[in-house]
């Protein structure tokens, strides 16, 4: 029984959620591999600092990336395939996705962009806070600039910034700093409460901890759909709340420009109806540049749709593989998305629902949600298999404090168990 009330006593046993996984025989932790990603980042920053002020005619700008990029790719492969079980499911997933995103960023910023443009990179990727002159820059200026570039994966304030992101940034710039901080704080509190409810359900439905648990509810079309929706909601809550919390700290404490913290998601603030609009507008774009940079090298419309999802599939495979040594279903979810996008566009046209009536928009939106839920079940199941939903990220459960759900009100004691070194 999930909720308690004066008429329905909350007498169901609360099952503690230790860090157990579907694959208990995973090898021992390979902690030394944790340093592979920092090594890759340092190598990329040093290389970018050297080639940044150089024109394309410079042999160093051509030869150095030709040497460094294969090393970066090798480090990414090593980190993805041979690192495992570092700490918790969340850290495992973060490490796996970081290994791929940082590798793709290195290929883009050290190889593809220098190959496409003649001018020095310091002129192309200008950073107002960390200027780096093309003529006689100091090494301090070079490294400050290259570090700022590496710390800007969404390419804010650069020629590669997506139009949607620029629009969101301008919208944020039009609000006061005080209002920005208040709205972000309200978002964190709102998501905190929503996560509390979600965790209550995940503790009730043991499928989220282990699909093979003998007390897990049986799979039906309805339960599978609910699990997919709740799992996807958990991803939105986690990513959006972390971004809002970082924005509060960076803007409120360190004084960063709040216009550089535009919204990640457009689920509740912008119109979207089609599958393409879900991925382009509603969902977060943290890795958009890393997924789309190769599309500039092809002219085929189909490849421009397929390539980003192939790279996204590799990234999510890496994160899931790091958790449980199984990421095929997570990867297949992303690889299937171009099929849905192209099929939907074939039926309703490439212009989508622009200029169409409300009834058509609702039907298209329903078809989009049916597609995402149907294809996303295996994705969420892979996350559950890796122990992702065992983590309790909030320190205090208001629902437990009020006696609405079972379990302790103070949650961090249990959560910290997941962050030990095994």
UniProtKB/TrEMBL annotation:
<feature type="transmembrane region" description="Helical">
    <location>
        <begin position="328"/>
        <end position="348"/>
    </location>
</feature>
<keyword id="KW-0808">Transferase</keyword>
<keyword id="KW-0812">Transmembrane</keyword>
<feature type="transmembrane region" description="Helical">
    <location>
        <begin position="32"/>
        <end position="51"/>
    </location>
</feature>
<dbReference type="InterPro" id="IPR032805">
    <property type="entry name" value="Wax_synthase_dom"/>
</dbReference>
<protein>
    <recommendedName>
        <fullName>Wax synthase domain-containing protein</fullName>
    </recommendedName>
</protein>
<feature type="transmembrane region" description="Helical">
    <location>
        <begin position="93"/>
        <end position="113"/>
    </location>
</feature>
<dbReference type="InterPro" id="IPR044851">
    <property type="entry name" value="Wax_synthase"/>
</dbReference>
<keyword id="KW-1133">Transmembrane helix</keyword>
<dbReference type="GO" id="GO:0016020">
    <property type="term" value="C:membrane"/>
</dbReference>
<feature type="transmembrane region" description="Helical">
    <location>
        <begin position="181"/>
        <end position="201"/>
    </location>
</feature>
<feature type="transmembrane region" description="Helical">
    <location>
        <begin position="63"/>
        <end position="81"/>
    </location>
</feature>
<feature type="transmembrane region" description="Helical">
    <location>
        <begin position="302"/>
        <end position="322"/>
    </location>
</feature>
<dbReference type="GO" id="GO:0006629">
    <property type="term" value="P:lipid metabolic process"/>
</dbReference>
<comment type="pathway">
    <text>Secondary metabolite biosynthesis.</text>
</comment>
<feature type="transmembrane region" description="Helical">
    <location>
        <begin position="360"/>
        <end position="380"/>
    </location>
</feature>
<feature type="domain" description="Wax synthase">
    <location>
        <begin position="261"/>
        <end position="335"/>
    </location>
</feature>
<keyword id="KW-0472">Membrane</keyword>
<dbReference type="GO" id="GO:0008374">
    <property type="term" value="F:O-acyltransferase activity"/>
</dbReference>
<comment type="similarity">
    <text>Belongs to the wax synthase family.</text>
</comment>
<dbReference type="Pfam" id="PF13813">
    <property type="entry name" value="MBOAT_2"/>
</dbReference>
